[in-house]
Sequence to fold (686 residues):
Amino acid sequence: METANKTGTIKDKLIFEFETSKLFLFGDTQLRDQSMESFYKQGIPDRKHEEYKYTPIASMLKGEFNFSTTKNCSDEQIEELKFLKGAYVVIIENGILVEGLSNLEHLPKGLTICSLVDASKSSSPVFEKHYSQYADVNADPFIALNTAMTKDGVFIHIEKNVIIEKPIHIIHIATAFENTIIHPRNLIVIDENAQVKIVESYQTVDSKAKIFNNALTEIVVDKHAIVDHYKIQDENDDFGYLLNTTQVIQKKQSVFSTHTFTLSGALVRNNLTIVLDDEHIESHLNGLYITNGKQIVDNHTVVDHRKPNCNSNELYKGIIDGKSTATFNGKIFVRKDAQKTNAFQSNKNILLSEDGTINTKPQLEIYADDVKCSHGTSTGKLDQEKIFYLQARGIGITNAKKLLMHAFASEVVNTVKIEALREYIEAKIAKTFE
Amino acid sequence: MLSIKNLHASIDGKEILRGINLEIKAGEVHAIMGPNGSGKSTLSAVLAGRPEYEVTAGEIIYNGKNLLELAAEDRAREGIFLAFQYPIEIPGVSNINFLKTAIGEIRAYKGLEPMEAKDFLKLLKEKQALVEIDRALISRSINEGFSGGEKKRNEIFQMAMLEPKLAILDETDSGLDIDALRIVANGVNKLKSKANATIVITHYQRLLDYIIPDVVHVLYNGKIVKSGSKELALELEEKGYDFIKEVEEIEA
Fold:
């Protein structure tokens, strides 16, 4: 690796920061070095990079950045973000788990929630077995960067046969007075026949400068486990830049449902990968993005069918307004062994403005011969016939459009099984339509 | 209540209505019959304010107001109701939420207080019984997965809920079996009063056995070529529309 220096490109700055801080970071130094090496080779992807064609991260990362994890927001501001009553709450502020503000007392038997730093220090065997085993540092520069530079995050472990009734709410807070880059990381391990609901919310609070949140979550769903996973991305439209990698591995007969709601943020890039690594697995991927202004939202999903007799079902919907750009890229792999696979994908968009852009690209790669796979995309305006029908009953054009947008979104919103969360999302959506 | 004078309307530059004259008073039922393509549905679309149609000449005065200056939603708020020939499905919008929004906007337009939730539910129950529509249908999304008959019945249910002054039934009988036709007609009859008027647009005479019209008009080639009592409908049924065509040609 070349000698890093503090001035120069963002890549140089990241390497310099890494070299000067790595001794203070938790865990395996070798893994971090290798990851940084990989990041150095891959670099920050520019628009020539096929996978990042519509996500101008390189141009966003120009100018000065620091890597401080200083807290800026008050305890009261954080309390307001706890919108799920009765949940186990994990507060992660600028990538660091803040135990004092989290609600982790009285955890039931079989549930562990602690910081990644603590999990690493205590040499938890579950942590050591699974940490950084699924998100491949050579597959994506931001996985490499996160693995090299992460300072903390949450480790959650649900033991065999344990059912956690209350949801676990991980609140990621990004807050910056100067341009900042953070790399929070989570590892969630759900053992055999366990059940849990996990909500990750991403918010910017009290920011006056760009904050680039390179967040990564690995989720291990062991056999017969049932997991409901939600991401609510609601960052600041001027300062919030989020690259959210979610890497999931599923084992035999497990059910994993994930829901991604992108409601605001200057730039949001989701890299969601689910590997179906055994038979009789069920995976559900639901997404809803509502964009406006100059927002850029890019959802890349990968569903990797490796074994026979599995089902995956994907539904992403978007409402695009203003000069915003939304991208959906959905890859489905059906490997040679994955006979009797059922894989379905659908991406539907409503374009409300002349200046909005939607890029949609389904990519199916099928190497097995006895499978049922389908994909479909559609992009259109609000249906004039429907608007007229509502008008003909006395409903004004503004409310008619709102009703239809709610109707369009409801197909995804209705997949939310936690009632309080569904209400929260509905209220948020209603606000974005005002 | 409604006065149409020399109404000309076109769509995509093609003239469909070529000088309609029609006077309707409160308490009356008018039937408009005519062969396919005569302009029946265009007339209902123009009355309801469908934006694709362009009125090129003439006027429509409704309760003293120039109807053509009102947006579609304002016409509905003023008491005009179109029962659609082909009611569309709107998945994701429940009938209840839809009607609540509609009634809310209509009341706000009239300067009335919002309706209390319990009054709304009472009204819903009452009208549901009146038009004999299944409660399960009402709680579903608008017309989603409804049969043809259920859709038509839902139109009449909406009409009952909104209590219009002028109801226009655009081929409400098409696609209905005799039992459904009776139920729909029965609903319409129960909603009739001295204060409101109904326009029944139909291709066949059968519906008029159940909804008895005061006047029957025959629309042909964008004009009302003949008006008469309910017997005219029977005559038309018997002789067919060719008889009108012949009359028209002779007159021309």
